[in-house]
Amino acid sequence: MTSSLPRGRPRRARSHLSLRVAHAVLGGAAGVVWLVLPGMTAGNGTPVAAQGSRPAASAAVAPDEETSATDLVLPLVAVGAVGAVAGYGYLRRVRRARDRTTPGGIGTPPAAPSAIPSATLSAAPPHPADLDAVACASLVRADDRVRAARAELGFAGELLGPEAVGPFGRALREAEGELTVAFRMRQRYDEGVPAEEAARRHTLAGIVGRCEEAGRRLDGPGRLGSPEPALPFAEARFRELAGRTGAAQALLADLTLRYAPTATSAVTGNVEQAKDRLLFATFRLNRARQAADSGEPEQAVRDLRAAQGAVGQAGVFLGGVDRLAAALRDAEGTVPAALTGAEAELAEPRAHPPKEGERHPRLLNADSVLASVRQELASGQPYDPLGVLRRIVRAVVPLASGRSGVLSAAALTVAREAVETADDFVGTHRGAVGVTARTRLAEARRLLTTGGPADRPAADARALEALELAELDVRAHGNPAPGAGETAGTGGAVLGGIVPADDPEHGHPPGFRQV
């Protein structure tokens, strides 16, 4: 996109030309009067400022000195005019710098759809690293708000019904749409598109604008619900999840015995983290109840929202174990059919093997992968069904003609599970996960939901990349112990983005507008 600034700048310059000349002449005249007046009045005896304090020898001015003072008038006029123009230009630059739009946080209304207008970027481009940092922070902040609002709406929808939360659902969908576009812009930016520096600045400014618009959408409907009916509902949900922890623990133990370690590595520790979130929810639900009984509705709302966030993440942890168990069972039943379908897809390449080019090594690799899978299945040892399907898909799909629908189904199975697993991890650790992991996850979901069968392996690869990057972010961040005065489980709640790290005890949780 090309800025319209170069076309408008000459007209503005001409429109202000006469004003600038007037300022320059006025400033120059004032400077001349101030500098020359003492010399012009001292000779005729007219009192001037501070003349009385001068020595007597200086009371009279010789004729040649008067001529010199007169001769200095034109140079002084020139110097004064130049100084006035320079001063006016400086003031103009200061005013432009003060009035320039600066990217703000979520919910800060910008002057235009983008937080930094394209004309401003062209006139005084900020440092690319600074604008990039603003764009990254805006994406993380907007993603946190959208995720929190989605969980909040889930609670309210179950409690109040879809009609009562209709405006909030529309606001959330609109915010999700803005965020989806922003993440797509970021993905393209990371891929080097666009390449021109000015266009890349405009892309970053557009990302910030989209994120701020997402924040405004979430601010629009106002506060969602009140603590009176929502508190008992959250308490009931808490008790239900607390009762599920034992069953989830037993299911996870069974999965670790039945399958290879890689099959369950993504949910290892889920039950313990669910318990930690529920412990935090216990304290916040109690505080919300006390605040509501004491007539402190604002405090009750904050604690209730924090408790709802913790309960929601506990549900994600436990639900991840259940979902993985179902996916492993489905994949286990699909592996034999996938092998048969792979053989059918490779029949034509084997009948007419390529002599050169990239298809030849791919065919050799596919034969090797299928032989390895058969050997692994014949060994009778625990294996990873999703991992096996992934290996078959990656090896055979690039050579496949699409005749075998089972391979397409297998690709969908592994991609969907990878995206959901990465999304669960990012959502429950968003206090530490950076923008790159979130961007790759958004791209994986886009490929999965809007792409065709050929895009499913790419969606799987992006989701695995997102999960790896998110895990690295969490390891680098760590899980700090609660500080003095903080309730149990606060460290996990901060890691999960449920409460702000700068004020976990009293800060507002993200989501819809607080007031």
Quick structural gist:
The protein has 515 residues and is mainly α. The chain has 18 helices and no strands. The N terminus is likely disordered.
Strand segment count = 0
Beta-strand fraction estimate: under 5%
Pairing-aware structural class of the strands and helices?
A: mainly alpha
Q: In this structure, how is the largest beta sheet organized?
A: none
Share of residues in helices:
over 70%
Helix-strand sequence: HHHHHHHHHHHHHHHHHH
Shape descriptor? globular
**Uncertain parts:** 1-82, 84-123
The structural domain count equals 3
Mean pLDDT: 80
Task: Walk me through what this model shows.
- This protein has 515 residues and is mainly alpha-helical.
- The chain folds into 3 domains: 5-46 and 60-99, no CATH class; 126-219; 237-495, no CATH class.
- The protein has 18 helices and no strands.
- It is globular.
- Residues 1-82 and 84-123 have low confidence and may be disordered.
List keywords for this structure.
disordered N terminus, mainly alpha, 515 residues
Describe the secondary structure blueprint for this structure.
Blueprint: H1 5-15, H2 17-42, H3 63-71, H4 73-99, H5 118-123, H6 128-160, H7 166-190, H8 197-219, H9 227-258, H10 261-264, H11 270-293, H12 297-351, H13 359-378, H14 385-396, H15 405-428, H16 435-450, H17 456-477, H18 490-495
Helix pairs in contact: 2-4, 6-7, 6-8, 6-12, 7-8, 7-16, 9-11, 9-12, 11-12, 12-14, 12-15, 13-14, 14-15, 15-16, 15-17, 16-17
